[in-house]
Amino acid sequence: MVKVEHQRIIFSKYKQEIFKKAVELSTQCGVDIAMLLCSPQGNTIYSFGSLSVDSIINRFLGENRWLDPRRRELYWLEKEVNAEKERGTALGVAHKKWEDYINGLGW
């Protein structure tokens, strides 16, 4: 019981300090910060955001395609499809030149 109470006191102290540092970082560097802290017991979540925490997290999730493995796979598949399209276009051009060459021989 003493250990749990000690953890609560330490958490409360450091929570205030880390939020203060986040405010300083945000104002002095002009950055957007979102921070989530869970209490030692895990029953309470504290949040801080230089803007809205939700808006910063949504922006991060929207821009970061590497978080979701399906997005990573889609990204690489799209690259492969585009490479094959370019290859197909190049082959079509080469085929047209070859036909023009053969037709120019007069056969």
Name the descriptors.
107 residues, mainly alpha, two-stranded antiparallel ribbon, 3 helices
Describe this structure in words.
The chain is mainly alpha-helical. It contains three helices and two strands, in the order H-E-E-H-H. A two-stranded antiparallel sheet has the order 1-2. Strand 1 (34-38) and strand 2 form a beta hairpin. The protein is rod-shaped. It starts with a helix and ends with a helix. The model has no long low-confidence stretch (mean pLDDT 83).
Summary?
This protein has about 110 residues and is mainly alpha-helical.
What is the helix tally? 3
H/E series, N to C? Answer: HEEHH
DSSP helix fraction: over 70%
Number of strands: 2
Q: Order of strands across the biggest sheet? A: 1-2
**Rg from Cα:** 29 Å
Mean pLDDT, all residues: 83
- Beta percentage is 5-15%
Q: Give the CA-based shape.
A: rod-shaped
Q: Enumerate the spans where pLDDT stays under 50 for 5 or more consecutive residues.
A: none
